[in-house]
Here is the input.
Amino acid sequence: MDSARLIESAQQHLPAALEWLRRMVQINSYTSNVAGINALGQLTAECFASMGFTAQFIPATDPQHGSHLFLSRGPLDQPAVVLVTHLDTVFPSEEEFRNNFNWQPEASRIYGPGTVDNKGGTALIWLMLRVLMDVHPALFESTTWLIAANSAEEVIGTDFADRTFELCHNTARAVLVFEGGPREGKDWHLVTSRKGRAEYRITCTGRGAHAGSSHAEGINAIVELARLLPKVAALTSPERELTVNIANIQGGTVLNRVPHEATAELEMRAFDPEALSLAGKALESMGRVTEGGAQLQIDCVGQTRAWPGGDGTQALFELWAKHADSLGIKAISMKRGGLSDANYLCQLGPTLDALGPVGGNAHCSERTSDGTKIPEYVEQSSFVPKAVLNLLALEDFLASQPNP
Ligand SMILES: [Zn+2]
Here is the structure.
């Protein structure tokens, strides 16, 4: 495809893409706002219906979440190009109201909930496909597409990935994730690997006692747990790119009781599954009984596997980097500590992430008059180049991997 023709078409369709984005941002879609998520799902289905996409709404396993949305075009018994986005945001409607946080175009930026995370990603998918329909209708027609929109990406859960695997019969030509991608000057970040995560709870059980009359008979669960925690924190290892974060501690009741129980919650993250597993074993081996005689129970309460990258991802990245050069921009391969749907979907096929527009300050709704805090925004000017880059690279990829 000719990049000048793609740019022209993308510029022509950009106002419509931004109008869809405006309508999406106006619907509050906080993860637990089921009605909002479902309304946004309907609007998103409407947005892609004119391009011939069929919508399927699949309820999330957790009834506190809205339905996942799957939009398909072409026969799903053939491997699809999976375009991944999500419907939910981290902002309750009261917070949006309190901070006057809504659709606010301001020079090159548009501020608002989900503008980059991840309604902007959905709008970019729309723009890409709309341009492809114009410029290369044969490729658009001959490809099986599955737009997979998670209703609850901002909370941990595997059911969205499970449904995606089922719909795809466990295989995809490519998994393209439209999380926002930052830009530094001419460097555009693409994400090629994400850390895995393990979550733990430590329960320390001491012996309750009257703090005045029988202090010596007590075993203080808080003190015993507090002695352990620096050792836990010290499992962090920059060489292994492993982090341990003690996130929460609780314990005790009232002043005149030696506390019977204290708990701590923590998470560990690493790119290398081996490093994560070794750190987990080290944590679990920290013993059943503390020096002071309290019982320790250490439980793994959740795990998300890493997306280690690999050959398929590298091949995709190289195509994106090559076409970025031709557009006068530079694609940079980034590893991220944060999770995305790529962690769950990477086993479906070669995966690349951060294909959405450029933006910043995701998960932030506050604005201060001195400018030290600004809320989430998307860069309007990034939609056209990112859509064109994605299309040039995707065409190249699909040509190199003929339809099976
Ligand atoms: Zn997010």
